[in-house]
Amino acid sequence: MMSFCHNIINISCVNSSWSNDVRASLYSLMVLIILTTLLGNLMVIISISHFKQLHTPTNWLIHSMATVDFLLGGLVMPYSMVRSVEHCWHFGEVFCKIHTSTDIMLSSASIFHLSFIAIDRYCAVCDPLRYKARITVLVIFVMIFISWSVPALFAFGMIFLELNFKGAEEMYYKRTHCIGYCSVFFSKTSGVLAFVTSFYIPGSIMLCVYFRIYFIAKGQARSINDASQKLQIGLEEKNGISRTKEGKAAKTLGIVMGVFLICWCPFFVCMVMDPFLDYAIPLTLNDALIWFGYLNSTFNPMIYAFFYPSFRRALKMILFGKIFQKDSSRCQLFLESNP
């Protein structure tokens, strides 16, 4: 039997036709994703905020990204969950715009942070002797400011000025004629613009930087046994930068980039193609791809916690309640001067 989102049947969107068992399974899966996202990113935020040894410019960039991902899990995913399972929006038209804008903003901000982290690691590997002088707290602050402000201006400006469906008004109102609809809609122009701004540019930066780091690390590995290279390594370690550590950073960056591409590429490709296919991609598939993209925010803290010993030690101290002990913020999480 067909059910509707609202009592006024002739202007209401159609509710989900899934059985209660299917809905319960979907809710359980999505709640698990939300809780994992919140808990994982909260652990990263607490670790960097509490432990003084983690108070480095790079880690403040990671802290900012974890904050973005935490807000995405707390402010966006719960409402997206209800919309995805019920196929209805019960929270009003104004909040629909706020939710959509916040969704685009935080998702894009998370991707922006990943690209800036890649740039930071590139500077650490390519010019380690001048890294501390070049990547200062001010530079990191500028990166963080850009990562928040550009997505915010882009997302809220596009949605509240209704630029996202400019040039495709007829199709937009045809798809949103019913009460209970709330899904992001892009015209051909705005879709390409969103694809370039939120995915193509930061993704290309990550890709180019990773390959550059990979070839540099490979070249360093080949010359590691050379006497002059050993002398240079000793000098760099004296300045707090080790080749081994940066090699691990390059490996981690590659995994971060791979996870990013796997999670977000399907959604952005479908998003930019949908207007050119006369909006033939089903809303259910679009919702599924959005949740696949959300998983990037779930995996980010796992990657850092798993690959960095300092974060693993911090996580253990948090879980066992040792952060409440006196002077726990000054605990030695690693031997080097940089994580």
Automatic annotation (TrEMBL):
- UniProt keyword Transmembrane helix present: yes
Query: What start and end residues bound the annotated signal peptide?
Result: none
Which Pfam families does the record cross-reference, listed alphabetically?
7tm_1
In terms of InterPro entries, this protein maps to: GPCR_Rhodpsn, GPCR_Rhodpsn_7TM, TAAR, TAAR1, TAAR_fam
Superkingdom field: Eukaryota
How does the protein associate with the membrane? Multi-pass membrane protein
**Transmembrane spans:** 26-48, 60-81, 104-123, 135-161, 193-215, 253-276, 288-307
Could you list this entry's UniProt keywords, alphabetically sorted. Answer: Cell membrane, Disulfide bond, Endoplasmic reticulum, G-protein coupled receptor, Glycoprotein, Membrane, Receptor, Transducer, Transmembrane, Transmembrane helix
Show where the G-protein coupled receptors family 1 profile domain sits.
40-304
Keyword Cell membrane assigned: yes
UniProt subcellular location: Cell membrane; Endoplasmic reticulum membrane
Where mainly found? membrane
- Similarity comment: family membership: Belongs to the G-protein coupled receptor 1 family.
PANTHER family (UniProt xref): HISTAMINE RECEPTOR-RELATED G-PROTEIN COUPLED RECEPTOR, TRACE AMINE-ASSOCIATED RECEPTOR 1
Q: Per its record, how is this protein called by name?
A: Trace amine-associated receptor 1
Taxonomy-wise, where does this protein's organism fall, top ranks first? Answer: Eukaryota, Metazoa, Chordata, Craniata, Vertebrata
